[in-house]
Amino acid sequence: MYAEAVLKFKKLNTQAQQREAVVQGRSLSPYRLRYTCNHSEPEYNRFMERYSRQIVFSGLGRIGQKKLLEATVAVVGVGALGSVSANLLCRAGVGHLRLIDRDYVEKNNLQRQILYNEEDAEKRYPKAVAACNHLSRVNSEIILEPVVAELSAANIEQIFEKVDLVLDGLDNWETRFLVNEACYRFGIPWIYCAALGAETMSMNLLPDENRPCLRCFMSPESGSAAGQSCAVAGVLNMATGMIAAVQTAEAVKILTGSTEIRNGLFVADLWNNRFKTIRIEKDIDCPVCVHRRYEFLNRFGGSRVTRLCGSNSIQVMPSKPAQLPLEMMAEQLAKNSDNRTKIEVYPFMLNFDNGRNHIQIFQDGRAIIENARDETEALSIYSEYVGL
Q: How far is CA 200 from the centre of its chain?
């Protein structure tokens, strides 16, 4: 059949159950997705009625809709760009959405990250989980797969397994370069997308010998220019919403085999009313798509510290993936803390305050630490509580 009919989230309470939570044969999420696909012909027709307004569009049609329902798309980062992209693709009927994000919802996200609400921010839900929770109420007839993890060289091949297309919802260049290398190496098309202030850009990057990749026109040095972040320059929600819509329109074209796929880098400045498409040539000396040197894909090991865009939080990554006993850690914290310390434990993370810092520890060994003075202090706090 063309689509799965029922999606249910079921929280898995014990560590053993979490390890057994398998989505399409892979242990990536503390949620189990259950679905059935036993449609009779009348049921199938009623199912397709949901998409009737886009099926009558000549560029898509019933055949195009079927291709969307059979597709798997990974959205990397479910923030300002990714939440809009996931929302549109969910409503359009992409059959399997894999939503990947390392972060949790904060109040300052609500201005532009349209899937979340104040309750998500108050309870500090992981974005990937909150997004799937909300989208499951929009379309219960597709697969929604939350992946609460830092995308890295160690896990990217597994996370991108059986993916037809990757969409960019990222807020940092290092992961973008990693995605570019992985998609080129594994032969997966992806769409670059970014927004800052009122300026936006997007480009289709297809694994073709004659087409440019991201490194053909963007280097790690130029991508990570000092001060270029939403925390410093700001960002308009109209800009992120517009360019995410452009990205998802291109995604639908790619997934359905349209001949109208855009070539070149689309650039828009909403504040100054400027829109253009820039032709990008393939770099004949590109380290990725010409010489096949995968600098970011070959990086393994070592703890990594990252200041998260737009927040006062620092993320610490362990030197190797872990499976932390969160409930046991919570019990130990409760014994050593006074009654005023609020400790919350979920299948996917542990929340608590140490009096100065709010700390979130994830099952894979990551931690997000608020109010640390600098990266050194963040590592010190991490070592105190996690010790990996």
A: 18
User: Counting Cβ atoms within 10 Å, is residue 140 exposed (0-12), middle (13-18) or buried (19+)?
Assistant: middle
- The distance in angstroms from the start CA to the end CA of the chain is 46
pLDDT tens per residue across span 10-59: 332 333 333 333 233 333 333 333 333 445 666 667 778 899 999 999 99
CB neighbour class for 237 (10 Å; exposed up to 12, middle 13-18, buried from 19): middle
Instruction: Tell me which architecture the domain covering 304-385 has in CATH.
Output: 2-Layer Sandwich (3.30)
* Domain map (residue ranges) of the chain: 58-278, 304-385
> Quick count: other Cβ atoms within 10 Å of Cβ 336?
8
pTM of the model: 0.77
For residues 357 and 313, give the distance between their C-alpha atoms in angstroms, rounded to a whole number.
10
The string of DSSP letters for 153-194 reads TTTHHHHTTT-SEEEE--S-HHHHHHHHHHHHHHT--EEEEE
Tell me: domain 58-278, CATH 3.40.50.720, correct?
Answer: yes
Residue 119, CA atoms < 13 Å, CB-side half-sphere: 5
Q: How would you classify residue 257: left for phi > 0, otherwise alpha for psi between -120 and 50, otherwise beta?
A: left
